Amino acid sequence: MGSDINSKVLAFAFGLSAEIERNLISQRTKEALARKRAEGVVLGRPKGSKSKIKKLTGKDAEIKELLSKKVSKSAIARILGVHRLTVTGFIKENGLVFSLLLSGFAGFV
Fold first, then answer.
1. This prediction's pTM
2. Is there a domain that residue 107 lies in?
3. 94, exposed or middle or buried, with CB in 10 Å at 0-12, 13-18, 19+?
4. Full domain range(s) for residue 27
5. Residue 22 belongs to a domain
6. Which of these, 105, 103, 101, 73, lies nearest to 89 by C-alpha position?
């Protein structure tokens, strides 16, 4: 847009209409949520209902084997197609490092 007054007025009008639309959407959403609550509908994810099936469920042996070969957690994550922290959390939750230490891979950690 140019720097003339007509362009500035037009830009202001578009901005104002976008802001009004955002406010209307927000208002409709809040009203709908209030109506659902009044009807007794429980909103959101139930507390403590995370999925019991993890991305790495059933891959314990593969991860353990890779760890025993001293493959890094980042490399394991790339191999399995997940984030590095997913692998780290899975290892901690399932005690894979501890079981490796007990089985004689003391040099791992």
1. 0.46
2. no
3. middle
4. 1-46
5. yes
6. 73
3-state SS, residue 38: helix
Sequential DSSP letters for 11-37: HHHHHHHHHHHHHHHHHHHHHHHHHHH
Does 102 score more than 70 pLDDT? no
| Tokens, residue 75 | 């490399």
Q: 107 is written with which tokens?
A: 């040099």
Q: Is 108 inside a domain boundary?
A: no
* Residue 102: closest CA among 57, 64, 56, 60: 64
What are the angstrom distances between the C-alpha of 19 and each of 1, 58, 107?
20, 50, 61
Residue 98's nearest CA partner among 106, 84, 88 is: 106
Q: Which of 48-52, 83-87, 103-107 has the lowest mean pLDDT?
A: 103-107
